[in-house]
């Protein structure tokens, strides 16, 4: 996530992965205090082997995107 604001910004992003047939997994990422013009990154495994096989053609969705600009 590239910060296009003039102040440090924290981003709350919820991502889901689905197959269109009932398999859905999701995770929320907090990219904290990303400086102006810089890029914040995070990585995670979404899902588990208890959920069954991973979709062959996954659909990836951004369910929620909230920038929280530093007011200081």
Strand content: 35-45%
Q: What structural category characterises the helix and strand content? A: mainly beta
| Average predicted local confidence, pLDDT | 91
Rg over CA atoms: 15 Å
The string of secondary-structure elements, in order, is EEE
Structural overview:
There is one protein chain. With 72 residues, the protein is mostly beta strands. It contains no helices and 3 strands. The chain has strands spanning 9-18, 24-34, 59-69. The protein has a 3-stranded antiparallel beta sheet with strand order 2-1-3, with no helix packed on it. A hairpin with a 5-residue loop joins strand 1 and strand 2.
TL;DR?
Helix content is 0%, strand content 44%. By secondary structure, it is an all-beta fold. The protein has a three-stranded antiparallel β-sheet, with no helix packed on it.
Key words describing this protein structure:
72 residues; mainly beta
SSE layout and pairings?
Layout lengths: L8 E10 L5 E11 L24 E11 L3
Antiparallel strand pairs: 1-2, 1-3
């Amino acid at each position: 996530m590239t910060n296009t604001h003039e102040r440090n910004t924290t981003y709350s992003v919820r991502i889901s992965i689905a197959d269109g047939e009932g398999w859905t997994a999701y995770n929320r990422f907090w990219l904290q205090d990303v400086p102006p013009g810089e890029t914040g990154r995070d990585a995670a495994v979404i899902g588990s082997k208890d959920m069954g096989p991973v979709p062959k053609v996954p659909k990836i969705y951004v369910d929620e995107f909230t920038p929280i600009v530093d007011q200081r």
